[in-house]
Amino acid sequence: MKIRRVVCAFVFLAAIPGAAFSAGDPEPEQKATPSYYDRGRAEANSGNWSQAVALFQKAVEQDSKNHKALNMLGFSLRRSGKYQEAIQAYNRALAIKPDYAQALEYRGKAHLGAGDKRAALADYQKLVRLGSPLAADLKEAIDKLAKN
User: Fold this and answer.
1) pTM for the predicted model, two decimal places
2) What residue spans define the domains of the chain?
3) What's the helix, strand, coil split of the chain in %, to 5?
């Protein structure tokens, strides 16, 4: 009889966790809405520059210290042909993170688009001092412009 009680108690206790899990989650999990930054990257990857600019601007409004959002804002502005606005966005990103190599490379390319080869060379030299492999990419863009 004592063994039967122990077995019944064990079976009862073993069934409790199953009952809790079988009830299910009372509220279905909500899928997180992608951030403005993530949505901006998707638009930039699709070449939708004006939409990307708008989304990166919203990301920067949410967090003015987001150097990556500022960099991508600059990238999208540059691809839209708005070189001076792009340079301003890159400057803001670099004020937050001065050794951000990607922003230096992109700003150098924006300087080239704006016709300022000297400023592009200055960004190239900073990339060289940082030891960034992106220096080669900017140098290639500078050399390509010199040939034309």
Assistant:
1) 0.78
2) 35-147
3) 75, 0, 25
